Amino acid sequence: MDRNDSKRTTKTAFPVWDGRIAPLFDTARDLHLVDLAGGFPVASGDEPLPPGPVERRAARLAALGVGTLVCGAISREGRAVVEAAGVRVVPFVAGERDAVVRAFLDGSLGSPEFAMPGCGGG
């Protein structure tokens, strides 16, 4: 492993609604952000997402330095725009925000309990 890997910080965004992963990224209003250094959380906080077209949302993700978006459903156009902004998309995730964040961190996000019903799973 590169010595600088442990110092590198990455940011993961989780769109939220009422304490859960928002069912549709395209209309989500808020993000929960987790900063990771060496694969471990070092900071977290919440940020609003701008209303309007997905291009504005993708630009906000990029401005915040988000590298990964873990979300519920996302339109094809929305996913393409977010990925074009350099953000990796992990779609079709459902569940309580803190449980999803823990599962993302420990590598168990692929578990059926986090699969969004009706969307082909995680």
Structure, described:
A hairpin with a 2-residue loop joins strand 3 (30-37) and strand 4 (40-48). Strands 1, 2, 3, 4, 5 and 6 form a 6-stranded mixed sheet that branches. The chain has 3 helices and 6 strands; from the N terminus they run ββββαβαβα. It is 25% helix and 30% strand. The chain has 122 residues and is an alpha/beta fold. It is globular, with a radius of gyration of 14 Å. It has helices at 54-64, 76-84, 97-106, and strands at 9-17, 20-21, 30-37, 40-48, 66-70, 88-90. Helix 1 runs parallel beside helix 2.
Features:
122 residues; alpha/beta; 3 helices; 6 strands; globular; disordered N terminus
As a percent range, the share of helical residues equals: 10-25%
In this structure, how is the largest beta sheet organized?
A: 6 strands, mixed
**Helical stretch tally:** 3
Task: Work out the strand percent.
Answer: 25-35%
Write down how many β-strands occur, each being a DSSP E stretch of 2 or more residues: 6
Classification by helices and strands: alpha/beta
Radius of gyration, CA atoms, in whole angstroms: 14 Å
Residue stretches low in confidence (pLDDT < 50, at least 5 long) are 1-6
What is the CA-CA span between the terminal residues? 29 Å
Mean pLDDT equals 89
